[in-house]
């Protein structure tokens, strides 16, 4: 089960043991079930979920009509949740953050912040050249990238300047610290990819499935 969430920012809260924990605040839900896909009609089992709203005048007529079938406003984001027949939702159902529980582990998927075109010092943590002994203009360069005759080419994967950031990343096994159903807020321990306002995918952790026992 994968659901969309919006990154609000980071803050600090106290856990049950009194430790100060850095958390990421996520706006999780409400979600609306817009479409039900079946093996008979689509070849697989899935639900289409809408997250967020937009004004009808800013949406296409196709999207307005599609969401109207579920008695919902035009969704800002659409996401498909595949399942193996274990979910029993209906078109028009409203899903809330209570699908998640405190002390549960989740994986968060998102796009990292884009850094643009960067050199080898920032992109690959190169040390750079010496700053003395007659060096001029070689402080942040990469140096040699290959031989001239043998092999006569640059090896694939050679670390060089280039585009940095804006890649899909999955942060695994983040513990849920708080679930605030009234505010549609989910607080997870640690950092997640992307800037404030980024849309992320939250799913139950695949590697850590057992919830943490509550400690006084």
Number of discrete domains = 2
CATH class of the largest domain: Mainly Beta
Q: Compute the CA-based radius of gyration.
A: 23 Å
Task: Give the overall shape, derived from the CA principal axes.
Answer: extended
Strand content: 35-45%
Gap from first CA to last CA = 30 Å
From the helix content, strand content and strand pairing, which structural class follows?
mainly beta
Could you please say which CATH topology of the largest domain applies here? Elongation Factor Tu (Ef-tu), domain 3
Supply the number of helical segments: 3
CATH architecture of the largest domain: Beta Barrel
Order the strands across the largest sheet as they lie in space: 1-2-11-10-7-12
pLDDT averaged over residues: 90
- Oligomer description: single chain
Instruction: Please give the share of residues in helix.
Output: under 10%
- Could you give the order of the helices and strands? EEEHEHEEEEHEEEE
Major sheet, described briefly? 6 strands, antiparallel, barrel
CATH superfamily of the largest domain: Translation factors
Low-pLDDT segments: none
- Strand tally is 12
Strand and helix layout:
Layout: E1 3-14, E2 20-27, E3 31-37, H1 39-42, E4 46-53, H2 61-68, E5 75-82, E6 94-95, E7 105-111, E8 114-118, H3 120-124, E9 162-165, E10 168-180, E11 185-189, E12 199-204
Question: Can you describe this structure?
Answer:
By secondary structure, this protein is mostly beta strands. It has 2 domains: 149 residues, Beta Barrel (Elongation Factor Tu (Ef-tu), domain 3), CATH 2.40.30.10; 50 residues, no CATH class. It contains 3 helices and 12 strands, in the order E-E-E-H-E-H-E-E-E-E-H-E-E-E-E. A hairpin with a 5-residue loop joins strand 1 and strand 2. The protein is extended and about 70 Å long. The mean pLDDT is 90.
